[in-house]
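The instructor's notes for this session suggest beginning with a concrete chain rather than abstract definitions. Hand out the sequence below and ask the class to guess, before any prediction is shown, which regions might be ordered.
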Amino acid sequence: MNDLNMMDKVVESLTKLRKKVPLVHCITNYVTINDCANILLSFGASPAMCEAYDEVFDFVKLSSALYINVGTLTKEQEEAAVLASISAKQNNIPVVLDPVACGAIPRKLSVINRIFEVGRVDIIKGNIGEIKFLAGEASKVRGVDSLEGSEGALEACITLANKYNCVIAATGKEDFITDGKRSAIIQNGTEMFTKVTGSGCMLGALCGGTAGSSEDKFIAAVTAVLSMNVAGEGAYEEAKFPGSFKVKLMDHIYCLSEEKLKEEGKIIWK
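After discussion, reveal the predicted structure:
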């Protein structure tokens, strides 16, 4: 795999997003809904936090991508997410699924299975524990948090990518992205992500932005993860505490340039 060529594609993906300003339809959890909306705006996308059952089918048709996060799933959200995924399938709209706490709460898995049965999923973005669980492996989780290390993560991602024929992005100390054939290990990032609520949800939303503006969903996922991590590193250089870090993260996502992404990205391509 030509590393320089792959990085050029990542940079091009960021450029495409800012030119298109994709509309990302988010059905996401209440803890981080505002964070997801604001980071999409800072990234160069347009968020819509539409989750009413009677509206989602038609709203998906207007969108560039659909982001489904099952973190705080109400009954209406559940039905809306399934209906939205059906509309996405019918209207060829890419879907990013964030399987929050799927390894801890059995109901989450049943909803995820319904979405796969009747709708579509282009990217699954979760932490390593969630991805290992979906891949059928034993995983260590604490609520919405993963206690897993990197060992076996890429193999689990490849298994899941082949099972569902979609792109998998697993986050941890290292981040693993694969479509089953091409893989990337991203080594940027900061521990401060674990000290603020919503970093994973915000990343899922960013995946919606890149998926809505790039045909290659593997490159789209790599672009979103790398962008979040490079911005996080820049934010931590200026802000060493959680409250100020979160503010600076938004600033650095907004200021992120293609040049910075290319210069500072630490990716192992496989």
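Then share the key points. Residues 141-148 have pLDDT under 50 and may be disordered. The chain has one domain: 3-269.
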